[in-house]
From TrEMBL:
Protein name according to UniProt: PP4R1 phosphatase
Alphabetical keyword list: Repeat
Organism: Oreotrochilus melanogaster
MF (Gene Ontology): protein phosphatase regulator activity
Composition bias type Polar residues, residue spans: 242-251
UniProt HEAT repeat ranges: 110-149
Bias-annotated ranges (Low complexity): 252-264
Entries under Pfam families matching the protein: HEAT
CC terms in the record's Gene Ontology section: cytoplasm
Region (Disordered) location: 242-264
Keyword Ribosomal protein appears in the UniProt entry: no
Domain of life: Eukaryota
């Protein structure tokens, strides 16, 4: 029964964590028994079982319970087959896995398929998922691969005929910009952002204006401005050490004068 297999998949992660904590007693149980089940259920005939298998796999990867060899030789080949152009919606797992795998694995095994999905001409839903996760993929592979392989695809998505695609690109623009060099940011991404902020669709323009401040912040020097991107993709400010020392060591009248001069 599919419901039984689905329930089984939901129990796999806690069992795996227990086996990991009790590894001296069960040194090979996970790799001999549980991992083959997860791999098999990734291609189950039932869609709900496949989804449960994918969620279990993500938890196992986040907990660092799957060996790198198994990821590259057992998991990734199946995921690449599942995310083929004629697949249903299994391509989403490719985007989700990018944040929990090593940079080398993502770049060599998943990035080519992601670039292929960005140009999928059959289903706009595929391209929209790629656009929504574009910043995470850039962050996963780093500057060199982003500028060489992803920026051309980003240009395609930013000029997509579906306005929802362009809106998704505007929303992740800051994360993409943060991964590139200052020269690419200035010469390529700035004109591209202007095109989004001047888009014919007001929803795209609104999303671009909301990303304008975060995009401008990527031009600042992180070491002096204290700006950085959190793991959830939001922009944050890291307080400087000098600020912390001045607030606890300086007399109150000096703090007031600094605040006044800053306001002035």
């Amino acid at each position: 029964e599919p419901t039984v297999r689905t329930e089984l998949m939901e129990q796999i992660p806690p069992i795996a964590i227990f086996l990991q904590e009790s590894r001296p007693k069960f040194p090979t149980a996970f790799f001999e028994y549980l991992m083959p089940i997860v791999v098999r259920y990734l291609t189950d005939v039932n869609n709900q079982v496949r989804k449960a298998g994918q969620e279990a796999l993500l938890i196992l990867l986040e907990q660092d319970l799957v060996a790198q060899n198994d990821i590259e030789n057992k998991v990734c080949p199946i995921l690449l087959d599942l995310s083929a152009p004629d697949s249903d919606d299994e391509y989403k797992i490719i985007c989700k896995m990018a944040s929990v795998l090593s940079r080398t694995t993502v770049e060599h095994m998943l990035l080519p398929r992601f670039c292929e999905l960005c140009s999928d001409g059959k289903l706009f839903q595929v391209r929209k998922i790629c656009a929504a996760n574009f910043g995470d993929i850039c962050n996963a592979v780093g500057q060199e691969a982003t500028e060489r392989l992803l920026i051309p695809k980003f240009f395609e998505l930013c000029s997509d005929s579906v306005w929802g695609m362009r809106k998704a690109c505007a929303e992740c623009f800051m994360a993409v910009s943060y991964t590139t060099s200052p020269e690419v940011r200035r010469s390529k991404l700035s004109p591209l952002f202007i095109s989004l902020i001047s888009d014919t669709c007001r929803w795209v323009r609104q999303a671009a204006f909301q990303s304008l401040g975060p995009f401008i912040s990527t031009f600042a020097n992180p070491s002096s401005a204290g700006l950085y991107i959190r793991e959830d993709g939001t922009l944050s400010i890291r307080p400087s050490v000098q600020d912390g020392n001045s607030s606890c060591c300086q007399p109150s009248n000096n703090i007031t004068s600094v605040s006044s001069s800053t306001n002035a």
